[in-house]
Amino acid sequence: MIDEDLAVYALQLSTARYMEIRIEKTGGEEVVFVNGMLKESGFYETSGFSLRVIDGGSGFYFSNILTREEIRRGVERA
Question: Would you put residue 18 in left (φ > 0), alpha (ψ -120 to 50) or beta?
Fold first, then answer.
């Protein structure tokens, strides 16, 4: 699964004593009626992740960009 691969990738990048990553994807369908008439409908999906790192101090990073590059940036900055 892609999310599991990204989580393992993040953990392998870190040299911290403790690190956790949370990945979330949500989605749904939206239908809008006005005066009984269909005005619009569609699907949506959002995703993102957060990192928490503890190694002498603590750091946190979050993003709605779910890519390897963004996870690497998060590990470096957290």
Answer: beta
